[in-house]
Amino acid sequence: MMDLRRLRCFLVVSEELHFGRAAARLHMAQPPLTRQISALETELGFRLFDRSTRNVSLTTAGRHLLPYARGVLEQVDLTTTITSKLAAGSAGQLTVGYASSIALSDTFSHTIQAFCSKYPDVQLNVEEGASSTQWTQLLEGRLDIGMSRMHPPGDNPQVQAICLDNEPLVAAVPSDSPLAGQLQVNLAELGELPLITFPADYGSGLNEIILGLYRRHGLTPRPAPSGRQITSIIALVAAGRGVAVVPQCTRSLVRRGVSYLPLAEPGACAPLLVLTRRHERSPLVRAFVEVIEQTLRSGQSG
């Protein structure tokens, strides 16, 4: 295997075309530098420089070797840099799963923007999916972090859920509904109308929260069409097929035919949960959670 120190000596001499100046750049004496170049020439089987008492110039073979030597050393330097960043947790790959209702929040967009800006050498992958699928994906290693509305079932010793925020729920009603003119709406009023939710088999954490809220107030939701995306749920509201209970951030979906109203019931909220493998050691996972926390502290949640 070619000695990289000799290759670096060759590169510096080729740039300086002067052994004395090259030795100074390399922080070594000139005789050892001369020996390194001679050893490299012996190893390669051809001369790299034409040397006289006045001039040093590259041979034809030396000129042909130069770009390859530069490329090798640049890759070595890059590898060294990336290795250091990997060890420090500022490079690598991170896969984040998120529930569709979270993607509309300012917290989500500001976190992604801030993380990518702070850690440009990290390949960040984001994947939308139902809250219930994130637990399995975490345990299988397909996700590093989940952003969810639903706690893992039971006392799962392998998945940790951290509640970072609670977002108020609001009602989305058709704009031509008598409810649309009110300043707020209560669940009893909503309970008289079909409730649009995610499909029952989708595994939505938001569904669990909304249905639990109805149950606590002694209400049974009237059936309605379902949507697999928060955007399709709002589209169904606009089409007059029912009402929906959604996180406050959904207000950003300004849609003709839809009005958003605060809920009269206090404490009607959807949590923002960050799911990680318990005892997670990855510095990138910790860094991402810290960025979320900083985003929330700065008041950029939505």
TrEMBL record:
Record bears the keyword Transcription: yes
Family matches, as InterPro entries: LysR_HTH_N, LysR_subst-bd, WH-like_DNA-bd_sf, WH_DNA-bd_sf
Position of the signal peptide: none
Spans through the membrane: none
CDD domains linked to this entry: PBP2_LTTR_aromatics_like
Organism taxonomic ancestry: Bacteria, Pseudomonadati, Pseudomonadota, Gammaproteobacteria, Pseudomonadales
UniProt source species: Pseudomonas soli
Residues covered by the HTH lysR-type domain: 2-59
Keywords (A to Z) from UniProt: DNA-binding, Transcription, Transcription regulation
Family: Belongs to the LysR transcriptional regulatory family.
Protein name: LysR family transcriptional regulator
Source organism, top-level taxon: Bacteria
